[in-house]
Structures are given as C-alpha cells and as structure tokens.
Amino acid sequence: MPEVVKEFRLPDLGEGLTEAELVAWSVEIGDRLELNQVVGEVETAKATVELPSPYAGTVAELLAAPGETVPVGAPLLRVTVADTTESPSGPGEPSAAGEPVAERPPQVLVGYGPGVAPVSKRAARRTPPGTPDGPLPADDADTAAARRPDAKPGARREAKRLGIDLATVTPSRPDGVLTRSDEQRSADERTAPADTSVAQDTRVPIAGVRKRTAEAVTRSAFTAPHATVFLTCDVTRTVELIGQLREHGAFEGRHLTPLAVAAKALLSTIRDEPDLNSSWDEAAHEIVVHHRVRLGIATATGDGLKVPVVRDADALSLPELAGAIAAAADAARSGRATPAELTGSTISITNVGVFGVDTGTPILNPGEAAILALGAIGDRPWVVDDALAIRKVVTLSLSFDHRLIDGEQAGKALAAIGRILHDPVPTLVAGT
Fold first, then answer.
1. Which residue among 96, 127, 152, 329 is buried most deeply as judged by most CB within 10 Å?
2. What segments bear the compositional bias annotation Basic and acidic residues (predicted)?
3. How far apart are CA 234 and CA 237, in angstroms?
4. Number of C-alpha atoms within 13 angstroms, CB side, residue 163?
5. Checking DSSP bridges between strand 370-374 and strand 347-351, what pairing results, if any?
6. Can you say whether the dihedral through the CA atoms of 261, 267, 272, 273 is positive or negative?
7. Do the Cβ atoms of 362 and 227 come closer than 8 Å?
C-alpha cells in the first residue's frame, strides 16, 4: 500500500493561547505511532499539556526541539501513514513525496480519536503489564523505558540540560515525582567545589511557568496602580469553629482550613463591595463588574506559582467551598489542571501564612481588582474586655487596583472581612 506524509501542527490550545514551549518528545524518528498516542508535552502560560497524535503511522521527522517556543499552527512533526485514498492528494494533504500541497488550519486539542482517550506514556508507566488496558510486555529497551523514574516535564528538561541520570536523583515530594528543584539540588551536590569557601554561580534558563509568572507579575505591576491595606485581628473564634466543624459530617473528605473561611468572608464582603469583583477594560474604556465570582487560589507548585480557579464560588456553601479549594489546589500541584482551569479568575486569595509569614503585599493577578492575603495565625497578647489575654491573631492584607477601588472602599472591605473572621457564625448561619 502506498504511503503519504502527514504534518502535525501545534493545535489551538484554547483560552486565547498563541504559543507553547515544547517540553519533551515522547517519540523518536522511526517510532511506530498508534492513534491518539502521546507524542510529546508542551508547556503553556497556564499548564503542561500532552499532545496526542491524530495519525497512526511512523515518525518521519521531528520539527521542533525541546525548549523551543512554538506558535499555534507551526509544524511539530511529520508522520508517514498508509495512503487509504485512491484519488490524488487533495488540498491541505501532503503528496506521496511528503511535500504539503497546501497549508492546513491548526487543529484544536480536543477529541482527536473516535472516543479514544490519549495514550499517555507517563500513565502507561504506572500501569503494570498484564493488567486491563496496561502496556504489553516489550523488549529490553521498552522495559527499561518503562522503569524510568516519574518526573515533571520541567524536571526531565532540566536533567537533560545538566546531564543528570534521573535514576540517581532522590525525590523530595511524598508522591515520588521528581521536580526541577530536585535536579538542581543533585547538580549542586555533584559540582560542589573541594574548597567550600569558594561559591559557584548556577545559571537556570528562564522558561516555562517561571517565565510566564514573571511576565504576568511584571505586566500587572506596571499597568495597574497597586495599593495595599493591612489589618491585624483576633480570629480565636474562627480557629475554634474550624476545630468543631472538622468533626461534622458535612466536612467529611473536605479538609476545612482558615483559607476556606477567609475565602467565605471575602465572598460575603463582595456582596456589599461589588467593585472588588471587577476589572479594567482598557481597550473598551469600560469597567466590567462581574456578577459571579471566579475565585483564584494562588498555589505554590513544583513548577512555580499557579492560580487554579473555583468558578461560581459565591454560590457554594462552606463545605462545598472547602472541597473545591482543596481540589483546585491539588490539581494545580499535581499538574492535572488544564489551561481552562487556570484562567478566568475575577479575584484571588493567597495564604502566605503556610510559610510562617505574618503578612505581605501580594501582586494582583492581571485583570483583577483585588487579592486578599492571609498571614500566619499565632498566639499573641491581645486586649479583651480591658484585660490582657492570649488570643489567636492574624494579619490580613488586601492589594487593590486604585483605578477601580478607592482607599475608603478597600479599608471598609478589609474591616468587614476582619469582623467576619472575628465572629464567623452569623455569616455562616445566614448562608452568605
């Protein structure tokens, strides 16, 4: 049967993304491909995405190198496939000689195969041979590949750059997945000079999530006039209530945290201060006040800062909100969050207290009017009923876009949040 060469171009990844960085190839020239087999991974401004092949055939050529930024629609690889047509090549199809007859529009990264899920090599490595849907026994080379350590795409790229064998690196995460920081630590240990008094510099390429985060915060800092207000308050009742509610059946499987209660307080305050949930549309010269709250959860991950989104957060009860926040953060940390789940927030919240930090001045997520930061909760002396007592105290900070929110509005909003955290029961009973 005659063969033709098909060209696979970087698909439209959605969410307005125009480019992606190629993290790694999962295939080599000459490899046989199954339909929907993952051929590689790209990293966008929001997440790492696996690329399933729309063709079954043989890899003929790899057209991009790991670390290269590729625009949507640019060719990634060519695949030799069986020619099942009897007519000459039509518009947009390569000729038998492998030359494209005409340009084809970019494909959209959804549903390549007829109801078949992409075949992820990472997932296949975790499925024992012989189990249902598991990989079939292979030759020695394939078996060795199946035993390679599980690692984030950025970690594999870093290991290749540093010339490190992943099998020799000890992971720091409890799930055993290697990260770029693991590779860097291993490299530092191997290159430490004999004379420890002489320090050596380490250069790390600015790429991936770190690059996108830098671009976003720089754009935010220089386009939105930031201001921040602070409030230190007694949250003893909130801490006591959390301890009680964790034993309640409604919170089974939903770990209740101070962040969830602070988020609930923020959502309640937005009802009286709707400008907190707005954005500045420079192009249209309009202020957009959003009627539903898409709450961004600033999350530290092995790949850098990500902001997964809890949609319609204002419609959720406290148990539902606690579960949604935990699920969103977990998806971001594990790399399972899609670009759609990491975009579109209208206001954000961050918990710097988990690092033992009292407070901070968070930078706005681009396009948002405000971000609330929750500091560390600790025992401090506090005046209660004209007497000194030891109470649970926290410092809150609210950064805001001064084009959208005045200082008076920000001060009232933060004071309202503080009042709710001082005595959360009335708000929670009211269901707001």
1. 152
2. 145-163, 180-192
3. 8
4. 3
5. parallel
6. positive
7. no
Q: Which of 152-166, 303-317, 356-370 has the lowest mean pLDDT?
A: 152-166
- CATH 3.30.559.10 for domain 209-430, yes or no, is yes
Residue-wise pLDDT tens digits, 172-211? 766 677 776 776 777 776 665 555 556 678 777 777 777 7
| 65-74, 119-128, 271-280: which is most confident | 271-280
Q: Quick one: how many helices (H) and strands (E) in the chain?
A: 10, 19
Q: Which of 248, 285, 402, 422 is catalytic?
A: 402
Gap between the Cα atoms of 187 and 155, Å rounded: 12
Q: Please give the class, per CATH, of domain 3-116.
A: mainly beta
Strand, helix or coil for residue 233: strand
For residue 110, the one-letter residue type is: V
- Cα first-last separation, the chain: 67
Of the pLDDT bands very low, low, confident and very high (cuts 50, 70, 90), residue 142 is very low
Whether the CB-CB separation of 216 and 365 falls below 8 Å is answered with: yes
Is 291 considered catalytic here? no
